Amino acid sequence: MLALLHQLFAGVCGQNLAHTWSPGGLPLPCCQRCTGLYVGALVAAVLHLWLKPRLTGRFLWIHGLFLLQMIPFGFHWLPQGPLLRTVTGALFGFGLATFFWLLPTARRLVGKKATAEKYFTAMVVGVALLLALSVSNSVASASALALFAAGGLLTLAALVLANLWLLAASFLKLTRRLELPTTPPKP
Asked: What is the pTM of this model?
């Protein structure tokens, strides 16, 4: 199964072995940053489904910063080790999932169920578990992380497709509204 995931992630990750976690001696199918990104996106999607956090301006600004932090870290302008690569990837995954979540849930910009504190607490716990699994000496941790990363990749793909579908539907609806009615000319 891991061989299949290695092939799947080859299209979206450089798979640099020097920057890849190997829990239990089993290299993951994606690098540390991509592991964080995809696991973070999966955790974010689960938290959005479960907690339905209020998507307030502050909440969106924080997630926008999660996206922007990738500029100095993704371009390696700042020194970073494995833990920082994984955490910055996870934060980026949270930002991506949140902004891809917006269009499909546009009617729910202000949630009713959970406060941002619950969401961010669960986010910290999720990132801590990600790091604990990453440094584990267990082959089961490698399998779990590989599956979580694949789940995150599929989650982001589904969110992108949902956004494209909704944009296309909105565009078609708009063009139908703008069409001029065709009435026969009066004699």
From this structure: 0.88
